[in-house]
Design brief:
Blueprint: H1 3-13, H2 15-21, E1 24-33, E2 41-49, E3 53-57, H3 64-71, E4 79-84, E5 87-88, H4 93-96, E6 100-103, H5 115-125, H6 130-142, H7 156-168, E7 174-178, H8 186-201, E8 205-209, H9 213-219, E9 222-227, E10 230-236, H10 237-243, E11 246-252, H11 255-262, E12 267-270, E13 275-280, H12 285-291, E14 296-301, H13 306-319
Parallel strand pairs: 3-8, 3-9, 6-7, 7-8
Antiparallel strand pairs: 1-2, 1-4, 4-5, 9-10, 11-13, 11-14, 12-13
Helix pairs in contact: 1-2, 6-7
Amino acid sequence: MTHHELTVKSIVYGRKRFLKRWPALLEVSELTKSYHEVRGVKNLSFQVESGTALGLLGPNGAGKTTTIRLLMGFMKPDLGSASIWGLDCWRDRAELKEITGYLPGELHFMEQFTGQEFLDLIEGMHGAPQTIRKKQRDLLRALELDPKQRIRKMSKGMKQKLGIIAALMLDAPVLILDEPSSGLDPLMQKTFIELILEEKKREKTIFMSSHHFAEIERTCERVGMIRDGELLAIQDITLLKQKERQTFDIEVSGEEDAELLRQSGLTLYPLDQLKFTIQVTGEQELLWKTLAQIRVRRFQQGSLELEEAFMHYYHSSLRGDNT
């Protein structure tokens, strides 16, 4: 048995011991990949710890899929490095497949197979332990997929479910998912989110790209924002939302209070004579000074959607006024 084979077995079967050695389970350092005509990625650096999920947001062509292909060892980086559980993503790419559940952004199946035949093939490639078969059944039930149908007759959503099942049923400690809920209806998107939350409870390390802001917001602690192949920032989702514009709904006791609010300098959106929405960007000192001077019947902080926070951060970076 080779050194790498021993390493992989210690990862899979001696997880607690290995975690002590590799606290940063997925680590990227100054990762760079260039193409002649297609934009790549430049100087990417980030980490994902055990039991956490990092989501990558950005427009088409920003570098999300290139990043994932580098992590999966499908391409050799020009500069920098990426490692998962201490395995180099390029040099140890064969061993890496043993500990990684992967869902590509573009699914390509053997169309003549039934869904079950495809899943059986994946099972056989991983030794077909009983735990895989049980998890497969649970996933088929959760995603409401009949695997007896031939893949060529499946809709895009059904094929997406099949890809998700193939990635999750292996019970790999690391999940790398490219646009995982693409093609799913809203009900199945919700089910997918619940499945990912269950995986996190089991200390899985998850890296995923997505166009669905709600999906990232529900499943990830941190979000990376990428544009033109460069990482703008890695932000804690809660802090990102707090840092950007926030809204507050307020109802004051009388017209005198309403007039004081109008004259305060705060950004107001009247709802009726005594009710307003207040929008605050950055520091909230003026808000709290104003509230101390008026009688308030009701005051509630509105939730800032991740999509709004991301778009504000993204466009402010284009203007060069984001710190």
